[in-house]
Amino acid sequence: MIVTTTNGVDGRPVQRYYGIVTGEVIVGANLFRDIFASIRDIVGGRAGSYEEVLGRAREEALAEMRTRAASLGANAVIGVDLDYEVLGSKGSMLMVSATGTAVYV
């Protein structure tokens, strides 16, 4: 399945629009990961454990969006937007959402 942030796919005109599709993933923060991230913030460097969780959450949200598009008969999702939101008391959870338009090209 083609997934793109652009409003179309070069050389492949949209034949049919199926509508908006989304994928959302919410991940909880881990106490030990938070502690190590805080230490890295003090001494500098990248918080690799957070980057790994963000990457995994993003891929899961995109996969869920692709699955929903495929169930409609789409073979592409255009105009994809990724959003990240902090949720919960004290920012204890992170939501990653992917939104786009399911189409057949």
UniProtKB/TrEMBL annotation:
Coiled coil: none annotated. It comes from the Bacteria. Belongs to the UPF0145 family. This is UPF0145 protein KK488_13360.
